[in-house]
Amino acid sequence: MMLAHASDCRLAQPSLNSSRPGQARLCKCLADAGCAHTRLRAVRKQRSSGCSRRQKTAVLASSVPQDVIDVEGTLVDDRIPVTIITGFLGSGKTTLLNALLKQEHGRRIAVIENEFGEIDIDSELVAHQDFLEDDQQIMMLNNGCLCCTVKDDLIRMLGELVERRATFDHVVIETTGLADPAPIIQTFRSIQYVAQNYALDGVLTLVDAKHIGQHLDERKPEGVVNEALSQVAYADRIILNKTDLVSGDELMDTEMRLKNINALAQVVKAQRADVKADYVLGIGGFDLDRVAEEVIGEAEVSQSHSHSQDHDHSHDHGHTHDHEEEHAHAHTHNREEHSHSPGAAHVHDHSSEHSHGPEDGHGHAHGHADHHHHDHTHDDSVGSVSLELEGFLDLDKVNDWMENLLYDDADDLYRFKGVLAIEDWPDRFIFQGVHQVFEGSPGKPWKEGEAHKSKMVFIGKDLDRDALAAGLKGCLA
Ligand SMILES: Nc1nc2c(ncn2[C@@H]2O[C@H](COP(=O)(O)OP(=O)(O)OP(=O)(O)O)[C@@H](O)[C@H]2O)c(=O)[nH]1
Q: How far is the CA of 86 from the centre of ligand 1 (A)?
């Protein structure tokens, strides 16, 4: 695994080439920059019997501990898993938390609740429930929003929990409804002490099926985050909650809109946030082994058929839709590239874009009887771009491209994941990133005769699909 953080040193843009099996070397640019703060070290992990056939080579930022090798020689990450539960005001976060604490799932959960204001209503709703076991801990952060004023408090609280780690298995953080998850995610990726002790399991976003449209449509002043949009964009998993309050057509519209914003997140529909604990805990959103599954869609998602309620899952990414060109992951298409970005040409039949803002009178009730709900677009500035390209990529070109991309646009790149076919490499190269922090490692080997296709998904603001596609093409060997 490689993890780099560019903000420690302005010149130190991360490079992809550091995890080459058997040939690990420092990132060229980092070494050149000579930046003491971000000096990377190459670590070769031992091959052990019964372990992966691949010898893993890793380059780690000094802030991240080496994985532990257990008695059977398997690499294990013994950090404390953390799930962030986010979602707009009233979307059902507390309802989910209560349901989670009631379920028999075998994990002892420590909860960190963030509540605006001095009266912590949520702790009343959660902490004093009679189902709460003695060993389940609720910690409150009341004096502001996690993503802004109480970040230091969060770090302190995480420190306290490390001291008590024998008493719980998993930390769940419930943000306020107005939190932008980005700074919270970055806390787990870039604060050394936190990254050493905690492994971010993933971001679960609750969506109120009835009201999400109006929150997404809300126009914010320049430079102000639309929290609802950000919460969807950063999600690994989404619960489309309160399905009882909308029609089937509205639900389908909303689901498509969520997928346009975030092509990587799984979406499950629910009432009262009633989902299985496995959907919330054990997400693996930042786990490189799962990135390949998500991006390629080649593996069964283990929990995909295990949760309850009347939902249909969206993590098969659009296979149930009658549009042959939409959403989804590239394995269903012959096209070299396609996009989820707003305004991407292939998605829309309409000659002009229109939005679902409350003021435009368009609404969802204007007769989608033909079920072409997703023929129209929204002008969400945040969207997804999926790219697929056949052929080997040149490693140096990829490095140069990614360096430039992250140097210029890291702020607007919320999350990105990919699987690359690198020339002369026997294995896929898997990577994932959040803004300027990203990591990668060799994945599964290419099979004999298999087409070498690289796939990347970017989620971000004002993404330039054509430029991204051209950039990827420019990396061909
Ligand atoms: N009709 C309906 N109501 C729901 C559903 N899920 C939750 N609610 C209700 O919606 C309200 C808000 O739910 P909460 O769980 O408190 O939402 P929250 O996201 O924690 O809210 P904030 O703390 O304000 O951000 C409560 O009255 C819930 O009982 C649902 O599926 N359908």
A: 13
* pLDDT at residue 212, rounded to an integer: 94
C-alpha closest to that of 316 among 338, 294, 335, 334:
294
In this structure, what are the phi and psi dihedrals at residue 452, rounded to the nearest 5 degrees? -90, 100
Task: Report CA(101)–ligand 1 centroid distance (Å).
Answer: 16
Ligand 1 atom nearest residue 270's Cα: 31
Atom of ligand 1 nearest to the CA of 176: 25
Q: What is the 3-state secondary structure (H, E, C) of 389-409?
A: EECCECHHHHHHHHHHHHHHH
To test ligand 1's pocket by mutation, which of 84, 93, 95 has the most ligand atoms within 8 angstroms of CB? 95
Q: Which regions of 18-130 does DSSP assign to beta strands (E)?
A: 41-44, 57-60, 68-69, 75-76, 80-87, 109-114
DSSP of 221-289:
PTT---HHHHHHHT-SEEEEE-GGGS-HHHHHHHHHHHHHH-SSSEEEE-STT---HHHHSS--TT-HH
The arithmetic mean of pLDDT across residues 136-165, rounded, is 71
Residue ranges of alpha helices (H) inside 76-180 are 93-102, 121-127, 151-163
What span, in angstroms and rounded, lies between the C-alpha atoms of 225 and 227?
6
Handedness of CA 387, 85, 110, 97 (dihedral sign): negative
The pTM score is: 0.66
* Ligand 1 midpoint to CA 178 (Å): 15
pLDDT, tens only, 374-385: 344 455 678 889
Tens of pLDDT, residues 69-84: 555 666 677 899 999 9
- With bands split at pLDDT 50, 70 and 90, how would you rate the model's confidence at 292? confident
Rounded-to-integer distance, Cα 301 and Cα 303, Å = 6
The CA 107 to ligand 1 mean position distance, Å, reads: 24
Residue with CA at minimum distance from ligand 1 atom 12: 90
How far apart, in Å, are the Cα atoms of 101 and each of 106, 204, 472?
10, 16, 45
What phi and psi, each to the nearest 5 degrees, are found at residue 22?
75, 0
